[in-house]
Fold this protein.
Amino acid sequence: MATNDFHTPLCELLGCRWPIVQTAMGWVAGSGLVAATTNAGGFGFLAGATIAAERIEAEILRVKELTGDQPFGLNFHMFQPNAQQLLDLAVKHRIRAVSYGRGPDKKVIGRLRDAGIVCMPTVGALKHALKAIEMGANVITIQGGEGGGHTGSVPTTVLLPQVVDAVKVPVVAAGGFYDGRGLLAALAYGAQGIAMGTRFLMTTDSGVPAVTLERYLKTKDAEKIQVSHLVDGMPQRMIANEYLAMLEKASALKRLRIALALALQWKAQTGMTTAHALKVLWQGLREDAASVAQTVMAANAPMLLQRSMVEGRPAEGVMSSGQVAAVISQLVSCRELIEGIVAQARERRAALAAYDATESSHG
Ligand SMILES: Cc1cc2nc3c(=O)[nH]c(=O)nc-3n(C[C@H](O)[C@H](O)[C@H](O)COP(=O)(O)O)c2cc1C
């Protein structure tokens, strides 16, 4: 068996061996996880939105050091106070790819593309994929509604072929992937690779506290991994817990009080000035209602995610997760994960080829 099978053009663009991407996850995708993914032949994204401004460059250098300078990616959001710093660092350190949501305009993306950086936003709807390409994206990651964190409502099995058929750039499939069957299926749909969040979170390399991972492992009911708008005003998929139950029961006034308290903590932690906070709010107000909600409430999510992912207080925070957590029963290393996915994809490919053989022996 060839050792470079499944080597799609995406692997060339990203400079990785396998078409398997570890997505950015706030507080989870630090230098350790990114390096473990990259050293196992995948492509990892640093979660630049939740790394303190003064630590981000050190984290970039740490990945380089741990991987012997192999390519990796950086995630950013235009609404974070240090967005410009991340863009500058991506160019300075010749980061191979950036991922983002909605936000960067043609000028920003043009600067990144001119520096040879692959621009691969994550989208949850066809119209957003088309808009992102118009803005200059050269790879699209689609995330089906079953995916973790902020997510749309169209499932992967509908969104993926819809986008593959509509665009010319490589498409990466995310939302619900965890094994070799998923990789093979995604390639069959026409994707050039898969991207996974939850599955990489549930590894021994993620650095997430054991008490939190235990909760993920214990969740066997995919219906309990639900979408809520209560955390930051945007649809976000997470494992139902005590904190979400409290938010659901709280009056609008109590929720506002919680939101403001968290916003103040987050503002202090990121060093965001009041002037910047007001500027972000003003920009949001000039755009649309959803972006206002996101801008005002966005302060909540990072603080609450930090409680679960860093502080080991899963009952008091948010456990962002894809529905796929319900079918993941053990923690493995990134290397075991990636090698296992490739082995199973080969096995399933051989099994499918055997159907052809049976057919022709009768025909
Ligand atoms: C704990 C957690 C944190 C996340 N944080 C981010 C983030 O900071 N930025 C981002 O673009 N996506 C974030 N996401 C979304 C993931 O990058 C990814 O798109 C999603 O998990 C894919 O679906 P899957 O979980 O089914 O693999 C997060 C997801 C999880 C589970």
Residues 219-323 form one domain. The first strand starts at residue 20 and ends at 22.
